[in-house]
Sequence to fold (324 residues):
Amino acid sequence: MIDILSYLPAKRKSTASGWTSFNSPCCEHNGQSKDTRGRGGIKLTDDGWVYHCFNCNFKATFKIGRPLSVKLRKLLSWLKVDSHDIEVLNLESLKHRTLADLIPTPSAPPLMSYADRPLGTTVELISNNTQDQVLVDYLHSRGLTLDDYPFMKDSAQSRPGVLIPYTYKNRIVGHTIRFLDSRKPKYLSDQPPHFVFGVDLQNSSWSAVIVVEGVFDAISINGVGLLHNDISNEQARVLQSLGKEIIVVPDQDLAGLAVVDKAIEYGFSVSVPNWEGCKDVNDAVCKYGKLFTLLSILQAKETSRIKIELRKKQLLKHLGNNID
Fold:
């Protein structure tokens, strides 16, 4: 763990209440003039420290066992903490998450509150039902079976399609249908804004959550799906609330790589495995199997911003050569 006090300016003073005050580094980054009156303050706690600027009201907290927040990463960079040391601090903090009874689980208010969205004319797929065989065969082509998720169909739809219910706390809050014919649209979805698919798939004993783009990608590896190639602030909060290391696996195409910049911004890990001929996680599962795909994601994981940027450039070059 780093000694945060060693990164503070030499001109500082301690107060009787335990605060160490110094010229705040955040004001000029938040639309204020440079602080010259010692309005920034850090206070050590039993399991970390808190920062508060009494000028621009910027706040950040470090607590052992929790991943570093976006605000905390900004503060550390403004204090001239090396980016490598920031990543080491994040990993060291997360290691303590596995120590029994070291950190009590916080009782945080729910981040998502969604209304139930009944599915109406939907029924679950049945493996030995001849009418469902074309849908079951499609799932098999995606490396999935009816045991992997409660796949359904909408009997009111004239087009054949696999319906994937979106759940949160085991309540149905939306859905998407993947149609199998050649007509457009290919997908028809009804979902809450900023929804993160697959939160119900996560196991409390897992140390990491794997973040992908598509719903089939998420089901393939028990990950979570963003449902697009971006990470909104609300989705980032949901991911951080899981209390695990966050590993973002972008689709390996030009559109999919857009999520890498957002992952860097939020301080998430990024993994871009060397999958030959695979655009996304589901392609990799179909080609290599679930276990190999998971292992390759963990082995290719990068936490350093510099290494993530380098891996992105390598993939962009590879994609460009393939396009040419």
Observations:
- Confidence is low (pLDDT under 50) at residues 98-110.
- The chain has nine helices and 15 strands.
- Residues 11-98 form one domain.
